[in-house]
Amino acid sequence: MSFVQKKGLTVGDYVNYSLLLLVSLICIFPFFYVFSVSFTDPKVYIPLQFYVFPEKWSLASYKYILSTNSFINAMNSTIFVTVVGTALNLVFTFTMAYGLTKTGLPGRSLMLGAVVFTLVFSAGLVPSYLLVKQLGLLNSYWSLIWPGLTNAWSLIVVKSFMDSLPKELEDAARIDGCTDLGVFLRIVIPLSMPAIAAFTLFFAVAHWNTYFNALIYLSDAKKWTLQVLVKTLVIDSDSNGVGASGASEQGIVPQETIRMAAIMLSMAPILIVYPFLQKYFAQGVLLGSVKG
């Protein structure tokens, strides 16, 4: 038994644990409230009453919101942007990072300098908007994908990860007749699966939570992403985006339970996917960061 174990917990330990418990409860209780209200039977729901657990369970709010065209359109838009955007992010990030690991690449230093430069300086909102407008991407899903195909932080971390891979494997593959593309696809990519899993999560979460760009680039409400629709439903006074006001007036489903159901549906996919990728999260990112 170690000295620390013999000594036991100190007063400072109890204070720290108490503070951590308090902070945890403060963070968790809003999720409990949202969850409980979304599953509460509309017939027993009482506005402004705190619910830890639903008094009577019901899926009425979920059935209603999933039957509205606005929510289905927003869900489809978000799924498209997330799937296509994440796939393109991975392709561009890993191919460019692999190229930057080659010391003999012409202009490599200039490209690395340009990548690092963007970590400190950015064009700003107005030039970015004008660029998207000149490219004809306004009110298009591609305005949420093309401008952010990769970013400097992801490139640097992935490059560091690839620098840590054994170069002997690449040399052996070339001796066997592999081209640069063959080495990349058959050697580098399989060895980079932890990093790919981690950045899949990064990119997918970023695209799923797309809000600001969708708000300024998409003027057609039918193309809104899920986060924009949820913001309109939860914060704006006019919640007709999914017919919530009409439902409330007709006494079908309370507006508040519809809002909470929308929030739960917007969070659920990421919460479901994250546990499957969590084990790759630290391994894929920290390996490249520490060895870079």
Outline the structure in words:
The chain crosses the membrane at residues 14-35, 79-98, 110-132, 183-208, 258-277. It is a multi-pass membrane protein. The protein is mainly alpha-helical. The protein has 14 helices and no strands. Helix 4 crosses helix 7, helix 5 packs across helix 7 and helix 10 runs antiparallel to helix 14 (255-291). The radius of gyration is 24 Å and the shape is globular. The two termini are 38 Å apart.
List the helices and strands and how they pair.
Elements: H1 3-7, H2 11-38, H3 60-65, H4 69-100, H5 108-120, H6 125-134, H7 152-163, H8 167-175, H9 180-191, H10 193-208, H11 212-217, H12 226-234, H13 244-249, H14 255-291
Helix pairs in contact: 2-14, 4-7, 4-10, 4-12, 5-7, 7-14, 8-9, 10-14, 12-14
Family: Belongs to the binding-protein-dependent transport system permease family.
Protein name: Carbohydrate ABC transporter permease
Subcellular location: Cell membrane
Keywords:
292 residues, mainly alpha, MetI-like fold, globular, disordered N terminus
Shape: globular
| Rounded radius of gyration (Å) | 24 Å
At the fold tier of CATH, the topology name is MetI-like fold
Low-pLDDT stretches = 1-6
| Termini Cα gap | 38 Å
Question: What proportion strand?
Answer: under 5%
Question: What's the helix count?
Answer: 14
Q: What structural class do the secondary elements suggest? A: mainly alpha
Number of strands: 0
**What is the H/E order?**
HHHHHHHHHHHHHH
CATH domain class name: Mainly Alpha
The CATH superfamily name is MetI-like
CATH-defined architecture: Orthogonal Bundle
Described by strand count, sense and barrel closure, the largest sheet is: none
Number of domains: 1
Subcellular location: Cell membrane
Membrane topology: Multi-pass membrane protein
Organism: Paenibacillus baimaensis
Family: Belongs to the binding-protein-dependent transport system permease family.
